[in-house]
Amino acid sequence: MNLQSSPPEAVISAGRFVLRPVRASDAGLIEMYTGDRRVAEATRTVPHPLPPGTVQAFIERVSASDSEEDVWVLDGSANNLDEVLGTITLKRMGRNQSEISYWVAPGFWNTGFATEAVGALVEANPHEARTLFAEVFQDNPVSARVLTNCGFEYLGDAETFSVARGARVPTWTYLRRMG
Questions:
Q1: What is the pTM (predicted TM-score) of this model?
Q2: Are 79 and 67 in contact (CB under 8 A)?
């Protein structure tokens, strides 16, 4: 499957929900969830407070045919769960490598949804990557457990800038070699 120049088309089964491409109708729920300081501060790129139009611009950017990242929504609507539980992203890094990132809405924390989503995306491997990378903030050990539960190995410490925190934040970096 070649996704080099198009947004994700496939729906990926993830157990209690599916991973499906982001659509414009997701904007309200994504805005509500990413507007929560706890979600924003757990990411590199989500600002807090969330400026008007940020989510619409995000959806347009990741839906563009030349986007370097593919984003799926965790959609539980077929199983009487919310239509948007969170998102998961694969960003191309070159040399058959991709970086995975995700967030889950606070109302669904500690439900296993992040582990199911990461596991499903690793299994599907839509970028046909040889290596997947991920990083989590060191003050978020639950996210680190998600990665280790999905076969990622600790690679080392680093730091990155968090827009919501307005500061550099210590991170743990992980990798997963595929096949």
A1: 0.93
A2: no
Query: How does pLDDT run across 96-136, given as a tens digit for each residue?
Result: 999 999 999 999 999 999 999 999 999 999 999 999 999 99
Q: Are strands 153-162 and 97-104 parallel, antiparallel or unpaired?
A: unpaired
Tokens of 117: 């989503």
**Tokens matching residue 85:** 């539980």
Nearest to 23 by CA among 99, 77, 94: 77
For domain 12-177, the CATH superfamily is Gcn5-related N-acetyltransferase (GNAT) (3.40.630.30)
Token match 């499906």: residue?
20
Per the CB < 8 A criterion, the answer to whether 134 and 147 are in contact is yes
Show the tokens assigned to 15: 């157990």
Residue 143 near residue 42 (C-beta atoms within 8 A): yes
Q: Look up residue 140 and give its amino acid.
A: N
